[in-house]
Amino acid sequence: MLHTIFKFIFLLFTSIIIAQKSNISQNLYAINLPIDKENYAHNIWGKDTDGDGVKDKKDACPNVPGLKKFNGCPDTDQDGIEDSKDFCPKIAGLKSLKGCPDFDGDGFPDKEDLCPNLFGLEAYNGCPDTDKDGVMDSKDKCPKVAGLIENKGCPRKNKKQNSLEIEDGLEVISDNFKISPRELEMINNIAKGIDFNSGDVSYNQSTLDQLDAIVQIFLKFANAKWSIEGHTDSIGRVDTNLKLSIERANSVRDYLISKGLRPENLIATGFGEKKPIATNMYKDGRAKNRRVEFKLVPSID
To answer: Cα–Cα distance between 66 and 223 in angstroms, integer?
Structure first.
């Protein structure tokens, strides 16, 4: 009997619930409101107008695809600086130069550098003064030999002194020797073949052939003094590269001395990564920057 009563109550309760649900459904159907499926999804998941994965409410640039680390704003040139803070947003550059490139590595952005392909000085708007005589190379009649400003960067002719002189810009002359700019250029063209092992002062057999060729030229000018200048690319620490460039210059100096050249006429120095001749952004450019150069040193006797 008790079981029958409970069963009756359960069926009655279930019928009431079904009836209520039916009334609710009919009322909703009667209202017949349109459903905007697109807005419904946006309300649930959040709108992302530019489709960059950053929702509009958190996107600082909601209409332009960007990166999450820049709150949805773009970095067009992919140099790690968002476009709104990048002074050169379409060309990859350096953070230290606000996103602008510096091809020659002299600290001046290319767009302000009058000599963007040559390492230069602030005083000359990024242009070089190779002989450091106060006359920029483009205005220096003798750009490789220190001279006088009033003499357009050339030294005065004085054959009584044992010092370098320039005769019509064609030849470097001393009391004891004469060497043409063409020969100087040839020496440094040969030097381009000096190939050091990566991160080391040692070099391969082909480099010995280049050094032997330089020895033969140097022996023709026994009284000449030479500066052997080592350079590196920008990979690694600045202080490490400076030390490596000096060690490489000394390595070349030691070899030249072993072949009979006078030690007092060979000066080894290094500049590390300070004087690139090509961009360090690419492998070929870095290879060009790992080099040794030879320069004639004026005698002050």
So the answer is: 64
Check if the beta carbon of residue 223 is closer than 8 Å to that of residue 164.
Answer: no
Reported as a pLDDT band with limits 50, 70 and 90, residue 12 is low
Residue 238 has which token pair?
Answer: 């600045």
Stretch (H or E) spanning 212:
helix 205-218
How many alpha carbons fall within 13 Å on the CB side of residue 241?
18
User: Which domains, and CATH codes, for the chain?
Assistant: 160-297 (3.30.1330.60)
CB-count burial class (<10 Å; 0-12, 13-18, 19+) for 243: middle
Question: In this structure, what token pair is assigned to residue 211?
Answer: 């050094």
Structure tokens at 214: 């330089």
Strands (E), 121-184: 165-167, 171-173, 178-179
pTM for this model (two decimals): 0.45
